[in-house]
Every structure is written in structure tokens, then in C-alpha cells.
Amino acid sequence: MKPTVLAFDVFGTVVDWHGSIAAEVAQLLPQVDPIAFASAWRSGYKPAMARVRSGELGWTRIDDLHRMILDQVLVDLKIDHLTETQKKYLNLTWHRLKPWPDSVRGLTLLKQDFTIVTLSNGNLGLLANMAKNGGLPWDLILSAEVFRHYKPDPETYLGVCQTFDLKPQDVMLVAAHKDDLEAAHACGLQTAFIERPTEFGPRVVRADLGRESWTTYHAKDFIDLAAQLKARS
Fold first, then answer.
1. How far apart are the first and last CA of the chain?
2. Would you kindly state where each structural domain of the chain is located, as residue ranges?
3. Does the structural domain 17-96 have CATH classification 2.60.40.10?
């Protein structure tokens, strides 16, 4: 049974966060290793969300969590010459992440036959700016901010179902991360794993790209997924 709605993880699945951040850091901070900087910034992502999910922090947007992590990375790397304006601009790098080469074409193909939405931990303003900058053709932008829960809380996946008044099996999560897909699968959603071998940068070889028995689809990219779903070309 084909799904009605495709809900997409965004960071790493639709856009190249590591390459995009490294490129901007290389311009603003030529004295640092941009690959290491991008990895360090992202490494604080899940721990920061865990503080919100546990109740240690009240609801906090990803933009604000990104800034908290950035401030610590700058301290750790002893970078103290940036102005507040420069820090704000750097933090907004996440709004300017570049799509993977197949993303716009693949999403456009999938949109012909399915409703395509985001299901990202990114906040609404971030996702809207990213879509505008990257030409991402979403039908609807949904975010953890809407549900006041971060993935992998069930409220996020089931929130998509409630938004469209659909049963979980009528919604499919599309993601490059198996922990995200496992959580969606546990909620009854269909799942599609997308291979993104270079998501974590050129120094990391992903060992988790193999097919799993519990995923509904496994695709090289969005164009491959569209072909598998027999979307019109």
C-alpha cells in the first residue's frame, strides 16, 4: 500500500549540513579546520535536544540550541574575535544549508503523486528560509516546534498523522537516519531509508547504509525513491 503523505527529515536527508557549514566556516574563520568545526557544532545537537526532552530545559527552538552549542564550540576552540553580528550570521548558516544534488528534482517528482512535508527538529522560520534559499517545493512545513516535541518523541510522528487525519500506515517518514526511522516504524508509519554516504563529511565513512528488513523502502536518493514509488517522471 502506497502512503498518502511523505514526511521528510531535513538535516542530512534533504540538505548537506556538513558541507554547507564547512564552506561558510572556511570563509568566516580561515584559521580553523572547517570540517572539524562543522562536526563539533553538530555533535552538540542531540545532547541539547535531550535536555529539552528530559525537561531540564523548557521548550527551546533549534535556532537557540544551535547558538548555545556554537558559543561553546567557540570557547573550546579559543575563538574570541567574532562580533555579535558575526556570531548571529554564522548561526543562521543552518537557514542556508544547500540541498543535495538530487533533492529538488526528486522532491518535485514525488510531489506529483504524494503530499510532501517536512518533519524536522528545525524550527519553522529556519525551515521556511531553507526552503526559500534552496528551492525546496514543500506542500507544508511541519516542525517539532508545531508539536512542542523533538524527534524521536512519538508526538512528532503521530502529529503528522493527526494533521492530515490519516492512519499511521498512510504516512511514510523519509530519512537518512535509522534511529529516526525506527522511532517512526514503532509508531506504525511506513519508512524509507535514503543513503547519504557523505552526510558527516569526507573524514567519516558511514557503516550503516545497508538495507534493513523493517524498512518499507531503501533508496540511493530521492530520484530512486520516486522510481520505486512509481511517481510520474
1. 20
2. 5-16+97-228, 17-96
3. no
Topology of domain 5-16+97-228, CATH: Rossmann fold (3.40.50)
Residue 158 pLDDT > 90: yes
Going by the DSSP 8-state scheme, the letter that residue 94 receives in this structure is G
What is the average pLDDT across 2-8? 97
* Among 205, 182, 186, 187, CA closest to 195: 205
Same fold, 5-16+97-228 and 17-96: no
Nearby residues of 225 by Cβ (< 8 Å), 6 or more positions away: 106, 110, 174, 192, 194, 217, 219
pLDDT interval class at 230 (50, 70, 90): confident
Residue 151 has pLDDT above 80, yes or no: yes
Give me the pLDDT at residue 231, please.
55
Residue bearing cell 557544532: 41
Rg (CA), the chain: 17
Q: Please, which residues have CB within 8 angstroms of residue 127's CB and are 6 or more apart in sequence? A: 10, 118, 120, 141, 143
How far is 228 from 72, CA to CA, in rounded Å?
43
pTM of the entire structure?
Answer: 0.96
